[in-house]
Structures are given as structure tokens and as C-alpha cells.
Amino acid sequence: MAQRNLLPEKHIVDAGYIDAELLASSVTEHGVNLIGPTRENRSWQARASTGYAASHFQIDWDHCQVTCPQGATTRGWYPTVNRFGTLEIIIQFDREVCAMCAVRSLCTKAKGGRRVVIQPLEKHEALRLAREYATSQEWQALYHQRAGIEGTLSQGTRALGLRRTRYRGLRKTALQHAATGAAINVLRAVRWLDGDKPGRTRVSRFSQLALPA
Ligand code: SF4
Q: Given Cys at both, which of 3, 89, 95, 193 links 112, Cβ 3.0 to 4.6 Å?
């Protein structure tokens, strides 16, 4: 899209295209805001609604210091490269301070002081802002535009052979894609007139277990 000068201001994508790295680099490299569901913080502290997750800590980026919810400040700030080759920052609190903490059980199960791993500033902020934005009604309305697209792609590839081109050359292939799109519309219109109304989005049995009773 960049080569063809077709970059959008906002690009609505599924969860597979949303992570801190992509959120930050799409803005800095292309000026594109990615809109999509962010992965939840899966740490036990975040899942326990009363726990102290990384988001509860105040980060002073200028002085490389972090303050915990109980007001203790960090002993160490260690930029490091993880096993995936990604830069991250390990924050370490004093073992003695955490040992004396009255709410330690909300914060850490480690024998030593609490350790928090954060992303570098640009990525950390990109993810934080994306998570915050995803809770807004504006985000919901924007993301609603993507509703149904996976079903449409699935119909195109499974029923109409969208994955394979019958022609050589991009121009003819583009024409095939346009014809496939028109065929999907015709198929759906015929089904609608036949009384076949769209069903509800299928929820797998496994996912149903997570739904409220
Ligand atoms: S355990 Fe340590 S880091 Fe956690 S809240 Fe207590 S003093 Fe702060």
C-alpha cells in the first residue's frame, strides 16, 4: 500500500495484527493507526481483579524509575534482549522492601522482590493507548465496520475459489476478484430472496464455556 501511495490513516485489522511492535512501527514508519483488539494482560495479577498488574505501576521514563502501588521505588532498571531477540526492560524491586509489604500476596509469589517486565517507551505507550482506546464507544463503532469480513473471505475462498487465480497477470486477476465479489453479492441476494436470513455468529463449544450462564 505504501508503494502504491494507498496507505490509510486507520487500518482496521484482526487480533493477529495487533501487538506493541506493530502498533508503534505502523505509526512511525507509515503514519497508519492500527485499529484492532489488543491481547489482554494474562498475568495472574491482571486476571485476579484485585492483583497488582504491571499497569498499576507508575513509570518515570526520564529517571528510569518505577513506583509500585504501595509507594516503593525500584532498585533496578535493566534493559535486556529476551530469547526472541526483542528489547525489554526488567524492573526489580528490593527483596527486603517487598518482604515487609502488607499486600505482598496481591503483587508477587516470588521469594525475592517483585519483578516487572515492560516494553521500551514507544511500544509500551502504543499498547497502553490502544488498550485504553479499545474500551471506547468510538472504537466499537469503528471496529464494527469489520464485522462479517471473515465470513465473506471464507465464502470467497471456500465456495468461489478466491485463493487461486485463473489468469496470468495482475489486471486479469483483479478482474476475477471483482467478478468474485459481484458473485458473492448475487448469491447472498438470491438466498435472501429465498428467505435464508443471516444466522448469528457461531460460537464454538469451547468458547461457550466462557460465556455468562
Ligand atoms: S510487594 Fe513490593 S512491589 Fe509489590 S506492592 Fe508490595 S512493596 Fe510494592
A: 95
